[in-house]
Structure prediction request, 682 residues.
Amino acid sequence: MYKIILAFRYLVKRRITYLAVLAVAICVFIVVVVMTVLTGLVIDFRQKNHSFVGDCVVGTESLVGFAYYEDFVKILEQSYFVEGISPVIKSFALVNPVGSERNVGVEIMGIDAVKHSKATGFGKTLYYRKDNVSKAFKPAYDPNLLGCVIGIDLVLERDAKSRYPYGSGPTDIPLAISCFPLNAKGALAKADAGLVKTQTFYYSDNSESGLARVDGSMVYLPFEQAQLLCGMAGPVKRVSAIHIKFKPNVRLEAGCEEVDSLWQSFKREKADEKQAYLLEKVTVQGWKDYRRAYIAAMEKEQTMMTAMFGLVGVTTVFIVFVVFYMIISHKSKDIGILKSIGVSNVNIIILFSGFAFLVGLLGSGVGLFAGWLFLLKINRIEDWLFERFGFQLWDRTIYAIGDIPNQVDAKVLAVIILSAIVACLVGALVPSRQAAKQKPIETLQVTQL
Amino acid sequence: MNKDDFILRAEGVYKSYRMGATEVKVLKGVDLTVKSGEFVAIVGASGSGKSTLLHILGALDSPDKGVVAFDGRDLRRFGGGELNRFRNKMVGFVFQFYHLLDELSVLENVFLPVMVSRSVVGWLFGGRKRARKRAKELLAQLGLGERANHKPYQLSGGERQRVAIGRALMNEPRLLLVDEPTGNLDSATGNGILDVFEELNRAGQTIVMVSHDERIAQRAGRIITLTDGRIKN
Ligand SMILES: Nc1ncnc2c1ncn2[C@@H]1O[C@H](COP(=O)(O)OP(=O)(O)OP(=O)(O)O)[C@@H](O)[C@H]1O
Ligand SMILES: [Mg+2]
Prediction:
């Protein structure tokens, strides 16, 4: 009982304890906020990548593409675990707004809008045709024209509040898109006029995938036209990749393995075909592997930031430790008194550990609450800062995010609180153990001076 | 008389403090016996080692050499748990510098020895009520009935000393060890305290008291003088 009473009294009556509580609170606050925002950014980024890619990609890096894809699509269509399949043409092109001298190098992706929306989150990235994906490539101002969907950052710039100033409909802009078609051997194919093949498309919609790299360089074209532009539409048609989405209950790894084994037997089956050599370069990858280069960079950044704020955490832990050391050194007289009336060493250590536990609990409670409050209002705080001082925490031209993530992760919280309390316990344990081990009279003498 | 009839027996107690290279020899072979029910005063000049001896007798410190036995049992043989029980139940110690817990009220300081010997349950259901009653009685007896809920820092030195006495008596110890009980008291209050000790002694309480003042020591049944690290009869 005296342990409970004394632990509480130490907590309430000593100014220096408030310092310890504050130190713990600040530590917890910083770590909670940083971890939440960073984790949020990474999760968000992964989600966007997943949505962009679909679950699995059968494809090649080569600009030549691979043949016989239609047969493999048929095989996939018959498999029980596949929900969406979208063959895709990928290449590079020059975009020239008709009538201007400007030329912009872009990536192009030839897709069937409906199929691609079934295999990936493409449909949801549209603006004007979000609810009518089949018309993605039909400009609202003239549905008979050949449309193209342009990555949002190629067209619009975010405003101060990181929103895009969309108009009421797409403007009537014809774009001449030029490609260098390649034949199956990888040589430049003889196109109609010279080596370049050009076709005019009309701006029909925007795609906002949330991936800065994609939105700033990608133009989506109708599948057949893209196939023609890239020289993949010969008697033996080719594509660059097949994006696949699995049924909801299929695990990613299991699905990819299934696809891979289907692909291997398909490859064997086609071994004697004329363009079988193109199949050799094709890989089967889950979305994480497919986008690994980008995700890894982001995760690296997160690791680095976590490490840096981990250092901040360690410093604070040390401060907590020092504060405790001071408190308990101050209280070594009490330890002597308690021992002189027969309190055991173990009980003395329990008493001060209990006290430390209270400080840790209270401190992390306060820090957590403050962090939660701050995160709740973080977007409003940021808006306010921007309006008042023109200061933006996250430059939206780099981070393709609308809002700063503020979803608090319970698991992360538990770890943070636990480590805060452990830090307090360690901070209390060392000096109290030391004081408890001494003879009662020794601790009493120290403070007499 | 069998030597185990003594409640307290010290034989050849040595104690020295090392201060860097020099060694201060404080006790150089103290022999001392106290019978149950005795009221013994230890006198000596300041710095003669009275407090040091008393701490050793109360098992708050250990001698470099020599034996201290309580009820015929060598204190060195006591295990950790036994030693704690001994400090809690057998001896009541009144420090020269009181040593109260600042965070507890006067009343709590007095009943602390009972509280620390009980579990939470044992304390809340049973121990608490009786302990508070006894602590209040002790405080009244010591003239502090009105100050039960004050904090130690609100008391004068003499008042704190009396709280410390109350705490020492709380568990009705077999042996009461008192270091300079009247050092900070005016003669009237000091006499009051001594009256309390005399009364306790008449009721059978064994007391060993340290004082540098011969006149105060006169109130005890027997006076022992500590000079040059030894007892002089
Ligand atoms: N922890 C210690 N370290 C070093 N020297 C000590 C220590 N404790 C006591 N001494 C020395 O031992 C001697 C005896 O001290 P002690 O406190 O026993 O004297 P005392 O007789 O009680 O004196 P007073 O009447 O002033 O209380 C003193 O010279 C003191 O300096
Ligand atoms: Mg002394």
